[in-house]
Amino acid sequence: MRITFELEPDDIARFRAALARAERLADCMSECDVLDAAKSALNALPIGGAPGYVQRRLVAVQHMILMLEDDQWGLPQPERTEVVRTLIYFADPDDLIPDDIAVIGLLDDAIMLELLLRRLRHVLDAYVDFCTFRRSQAIPVADDRCARGAALARKRDALRERMRRRMARGQSTIPQRPSP
Question: Tens digit of pLDDT for each residue in 93-137?
Fold first, then answer.
């Protein structure tokens, strides 16, 4: 069964306010702290009993964590900041709906993730393409390591450029960061 709903401007404003609150938490957290909190949330939340639409968004959280930790990808700023912002909201157990409320506790997280993932889709697509390319490369012998490294760097740079072009074209529908 498919159920859809429409977010009104007031609804979006509530999510913006909740995101701003979560971002204030980031003032006292390093990126490592955010990653640790997101990992802890993934491990502690009742994800197994969560509805499928929530579980699908949580897979994206796992991908974002892997992307931030991937030294070969080396996600640059400001995209890195956007990913960290997304994880901050997810890791906050006291967001719009407290996460420990059965069935609906992760609903706001799923909605916020969906909104923020729309903004990040080009970043995530580029990372998936990079990982696919990296897996397609043969395991290098000693002489091939430099060539493989150079090929990965060229592919990474091309994918980052594609990512930025697509983002610049405004193909994102996520609400922008609220003004201070």
Answer: 777 777 777 767 778 888 888 888 888 899 999 999 999 999 988
Task: Judge whether 173 lies within some domain.
Answer: no
- Using a 10 angstrom Cβ sphere, with 0-12 exposed, 13-18 middle and 19 or more buried, the burial of residue 159 is buried
Rounded CA separation 112/138 (Å):
39
First-to-last alpha carbon distance for the chain, in angstroms, is 40
Model's pTM, two decimal places? 0.79
DSSP code of residue 111: H
What's the confidence (pLDDT) of residue 92? 79
Residues 6+ apart with CB under 8 A from 129: 159
CA-CA distance, 63 to 80, in Å (whole number)? 13
Residue 14 covered by a domain = yes
Rounded alpha-carbon distances, angstroms, from residue 79 to 75, 76, 83, 113, 174: 7, 6, 6, 16, 14
Tokens of 50: 């969560």
Structural domain contains residue 176: no
If one counts every other C-beta atom within 10 angstroms of the C-beta of residue 65, the result is 18
Domains contained in the chain, number: 1
Q: Flag whether 179 is in a domain.
A: no
Q: Residue 120: give the domain boundaries.
A: 9-168
